[in-house]
Amino acid sequence: MKTIPFLALLLSAFTTAHAQNLLQPVWTTNIHSTEYVASLAFSGDSKRLASAAIDGYVNVWSVTTNVPVRSIYTRNGGFGSVALNSDGSLVGAGSGDASRMWSVSDGRRLWIAGESSADDLVEAVALSPNDLWFADATRSRRYINIRNMLSGTGGFLEGHSGRVVNLVFSPDSTKIASASLDGSAILWNFLSGATFQKLLHPNAVRSVDFSPDGNVFATGCDDNRVRLWNVTNGTPLLTITNTGALVKFLGDGSYLMSLEPAVSHQFKIFRASDGKYMGGYTNTDALCFAVSRDGRYFAFGNSSGIVTLAWSPLINEGFTRKGRQTILHWSGGSGYYQVQRRKRERGTHWRNWRQPTTATSARVSDRPHFAYRVISLPPPP
Hints:
This protein has helices at 3-10, 12-15, and strands at 18-19, 25-29, 37-42, 48-53, 57-62, 68-73, 79-84, 90-95, 98-103, 109-114, 122-127, 133-138, 143-148, 154-158, 164-169, 176-180, 184-189, 194-200, 205-210, 216-221, 225-230, 236-241, 246-250, 255-260, 266-271, 277-281, 286-291, 297-302, 307-311, 314-322, 325-332, 337-343, 351-352, 361-365, 370-376. It is mostly beta strands. Strands 1-30-31-34 form a 4-stranded antiparallel beta sheet. Strands 2-29-28-27 form a 4-stranded antiparallel beta sheet, with no helix packed on it.
């Protein structure tokens, strides 16, 4: 059919799979004033978001309403890391040389652990998905503390020769992963204290993350590469180049998002199966980010104290043809979508095509003078 090549050009948003380079914020707040945001975390149920900044505040919001739920202040130094438990009722954070745990409902501090050196700094914290364990790591001590979430007591893991800068528990809460400036990432069976896998890199490792099914492990390195590993045996699966050093899985684990926080502050999105670059976001000034477990949101903080909550990247996965129709395919985003179209002439506006939908595909007729795209909408109440 002669119109196919022409239509493929007009449907450029769907000819090859890619992420829509259109950041779709849900809300933005400058509650941290002008101090940079150091860490963000979603609760396990994706209903709350916490931020930590060097202004000495930890803040917790309701994701859907942008209503501050709790603001916590300490005079012991700025916060460098934060974590929420499964329902957002507990928030843990590292401030100065100590870790602390609070009840979000009333702001009551449950425990404090550390305070061994005024010059030390808690660089990483994590809470286990099963709400049993809290982990932290400080700048001077090269080991990882594993604490009871409610009491703050516990033991520690040793194995790194450099600073530990990132921690994450596996989805089943049986392992913890650590990233270190010594060029290694370690998978630990923390219940036994054994090193499960030690993965070596040519440069400092800045971030670690597990896929949602717990089978694949991602590391972000200062050599601008993200590496994927088999969790069971440590076998390297894939190396993705030209990435940022901070990395997290998106949604069901089919895609990854990386951030280069030092210079470009650019987000990049990659397909986990083959490392294909899908697109990204520029001009964000982002220093840190977090991804919600339900796959709907990501949040980032910048050097001006601003926190932005946005819909998860919307991935246009291409199109298939059936007879004289084209079927568009997409994933990610808010879960509630609007297909739009416009005439090919420049200067025309995108107009809604049909009604909003929760489907992840749509049939459009082969009409060569239209182009199509999909955007995320706020889900209906």
